[in-house]
Specification:
Rossmann fold; single chain; EC 2.7.1.60
Length: 737
């Protein structure tokens, strides 16, 4: 992380030099309605606060300029932003054709504005038809586009518009990891995707402690208390207008019956909005004593209203996104937000024929308080976005590149690919051997070197450097370009600093050792270091059974027992870098002594050392050998002899292996009940001997909800080296912020 922070600073410096030290990035922010301004305003404030880097031009269009929607451009002026251009682009109408005509009108008017402004980059938000006109105009006029909130999934035509803007945009700022994965699946360049979180959360997460009672009284009346009112915001669904209007009627009927003070906001400008307004007036909502109908509420005040409401109801994205930050109950109606990620505060009513279903949902949700959700942000989106903007090199080619998956194996005609293959130097520090390998991006071990691991620190470090230098020189001869060095070692490792904190007893003189500095100085290449169990998990994630799996656990069954945990596609290190010490899960309070000093650990039962100990006991008592077996005088009795004896019918040897398999299985059950992975991968020389025993214990001991887990044996020939290589390959081929 330290390495990449320094690299990022250097990159920004280089970009400033390339763009010209005196050149400020000219950013055009175009806002179409009250909803997108709430997301864009925090970015605009951030840009305005750094005039040494940016010039800001604000273009206002769409429903901002319509009186029926509160002339919301005034709140932009109140925020002290200079509006460069106002474009009246909304064609009045009640059907889908009006939206198409509005897009056409925007396309006619925008070229003149963009020709005058000549921005370096245009920031476009979301999935509205106005935003599609903006993105289309900018793309055709060779203006770079930064799209906010791409990759998300919802219902209606918004999905299609959002993804269309994604294909036009050059850079992407997304709010959730799922959205990021969707963008990658849509063949967008990972280097141009920033997972920042939602900009509105920067304001949301600092807003709740402000004075709110005066705001509640202003909009709902002096007699209203917190958690005793409802906020309703429902929009037409353009792909099924009639049904959405019917749903709105049922919603109003249910709210009237529920008899709580309710703030109703007018719908947006989509086709069908006028019919929804007519429904409100037909039911007398604007004059009903329990209702307050408004065209617009300033975002700062709206935050306070939903934060302290007893419930929010409707189909606005605000309900499933922003409101979760406060734990306010939400009732999401219809299909408009189908596919959105939501917190547990959201109750979905997909369809309703009568008001009863909606009324029942109100009775279930009203007045509850849920845990606050941060699915869409942590309050630090704007600093990340500004940093991302500063990193944009205007001298890079404007033409987008799409990262299509390979359809078939082609022979590349690019000279760089012909001449060299991107690779990593992988180092595996085992208890016996020290191995260095050149590993390609596809996981092929191009060349491997093996030496006995020296006993002293000085000799070991000298040998590592010698082998790495030799391998790096050989890489040139085999047409490999080394991107970095990855080191897999036993013990507790601080991967941020590249330091071995504490070693296992198998590797002597190997505590408080800085591996990164001497190796990166000698080569020079970036160096990553991690625990061998974590490396095995990374190898499975990149090359093995764990590829594409969100949550899985790898268990190494070898001389010792180790492992690694992948949770939400990321490796878990823990607060003091000792997560996934799976070999030291205690499965018996009075079991055999473990090398760690405790008793009853999995490693004390199921490791190679433990099986060797039991094999020696049987051999010393002449109870190991059976017909068909022989042990030479100089031969050391080990786990392999125990396994052979069990296969040949030695019941005592078989019982020892069964006990070891049961201990390992109980450890896996504990992992299932703690992490709930969908996959457990057994790796190492003993894995195939334990897999059936582990499955039996899971079926016997695990909770029924956890038994569906897959337990498989790794198919990787060398997970330690492949994991060390993946440390390099995973991080040198993507941008980190």
């Amino acid at each position: 992380e330290v390495y990449f922070k320094n690299l990022s600073k250097q990159k920004q410096k280089e970009v400033m030099e390339k763009n010209g030290n005196n050149h400020k990035l000219r950013v055009c922010v175009a806002t179409c309605n009250r909803a997108d301004y709430s997301k864009l305003a925090p970015i605009m404030f951030g840009i305005k606060a750094e005039p040494q880097f940016f010039e800001l031009d604000v273009v206002v269009l769409g429903s901002h300029l319509i009186d029926d929607y509160g002339n919301t451009y005034r709140m932009i002026e109140q925020d002290d932003f200079d509006i460069h251009t106002r474009l009246h682009t909304i064609v009045r109408g009640e059907d889908e054709a009006a939206m198409v005509e509005s897009v056409g009108l925007a396309l006619v008017k925008l070229p003149d504005v963009l020709n005058r402004l000549k921005p370096d980059i245009m920031i476009v938000h979301g999935d509205r038809f106005d935003a599609l006109a903006l993105a289309t105009s900018a793309a055709l006029m060779n203006i770079r586009i930064l799209h906010i909130e791409g990759g998300e999934v919802s219902g209606t035509i918004d999905d299609s518009i959002r993804h269309a803007i994604t294909k036009l945009a050059h850079y992407h700022v997304c709010c959730t990891r799922s959205a990021e994965q969707h963008l990658i699946a849509m063949c967008e360049d990972h280097d141009r995707i920033l997972l920042a979180g939602c900009p509105s959360y920067d304001k949301l997460l600092s807003a709740k402690n402000k004075d709110y009672m005066s705001i509640i009284h202003m909009w709902l009346g002096e007699d209203v208390k917190t958690r005793d009112y409802i906020v309703a915001l429902q929009h037409p669904v353009t792909t099924d207008i009639k049904h959405s209007i019917k749903m709105f009627e049922l919603t109003l009927d249910a709210l009237i019956s529920f008899n709580k003070r309710t703030l109703v906001l007018f719908p947006n400008v989509d086709a069908g909005h006028k019919e929804m307004v007519r429904v409100m007036r037909k039911k007398g909502i604007e004059h009903h004593p329990n209702f307050r109908a408004v065209k617009h509420v300033p975002f700062d005040q709206f935050i306070q209203l939903v934060a302290h409401a007893g419930c929010m109801i409707g189909n606005s994205s605000c309900g499933v996104r922003e409101v979760g930050a406060f734990g306010t109950p939400v009732i999401n109606l219809g299909t408009r937000q189908t596919g959105r990620e939501t917190g547990e505060n959201v109750l979905h009513v997909r369809d309703a024929d009568t008001q009863d279903k909606i009324l029942h949902a109100l009775q279930l949700q009203f007045g509850k308080q849920y845990p606050c959700s941060k699915i869409y942000g942590d309050g630090n989106a704007v600093p990340r976005i500004l940093k991302f903007l500063k990193s944009i090199d205007l001298k890079e080619p404007l033409q987008k590149k799409f990262c299509f998956p390979p359809v078939k194996d082609n022979i590349s005609q690019d000279i760089d690919h012909i001449l060299e293959t991107q690779s990593a130097l992988a180092v595996d520090l085992g208890g016996t051997n020290l191995r260095v390998a050149i590993v390609s991006m596809k996981g092929e071990i191009v060349k491997k070197y093996t030496q006995l691991n020296p006993k002293t620190y000085e000799d070991r470090l000298e040998l590592i450097l010698k082998m790495c230098v030799e391998a790096a020189s050989e890489a040139v001869n085999v047409n490999c370009r080394i991107l970095g060095v990855g080191i897999s070692t036993g013990g507790r490792v601080n991967p941020r600093e590249g330091i071995v904190l504490h070693s296992t007893k198998l590797i002597q003189e190997w505590s408080s050792v800085d591996l990164r500095t001497p190796i990166s100085d000698a080569l020079p290449l970036p160096v990553w270091v991690d625990n061998d169990g974590n490396c095995a998990a990374l190898a499975e994630r990149k090359f093995g059974h764990g590829k594409g799996i969100e949550n899985f656990v790898t268990l190494i069954t070898g001389t010792g027992i180790g492992g690694g945990i992948i949770h939400q596609h990321e490796l878990i290190h823990g607060s003091s870098f000792c997560a996934a010490e799976l070999g030291h899960i205690v499965v018996s309070l009075d079991g055999p002594e473990c090398l760690c000093g405790s008793q009853g650990c999995i490693e004390a039962y199921a490791s190679g050392i433990a099986l060797q100990r039991e094999a020696k006991k049987l051999h010393d008592e002449d109870l190991l050998l059976v017909e068909g077996m022989a042990v030479k005088k100089e031969e050391v009795v080990g786990a392999a002899h125990l396994i052979q004896a069990a296969k040949l019918g030695n019941t005592k040897a078989d019982n020892i292996l069964r006990t070891a398999g049961t201990a390992l299985g109980l450890g896996v059950v504990n992992i299932l009940h703690t992490m709930n992975p969908s996959l457990v991968i057994l790796s190492g020389v003993l894995a195939s001997h334990y897999v059936n025993a582990v499955k039996e214990v899971i079926n016997r001991q695990a909770l029924s909800s956890a038994r569906a887990v897959d337990v498989v044996v790794s198919n990787l020939a060398d997970p330690a080296l492949l994991g060390a290589a993946s440390l390099v390959l995973d991080y040198t081929t993507r941008r980190i912020y």
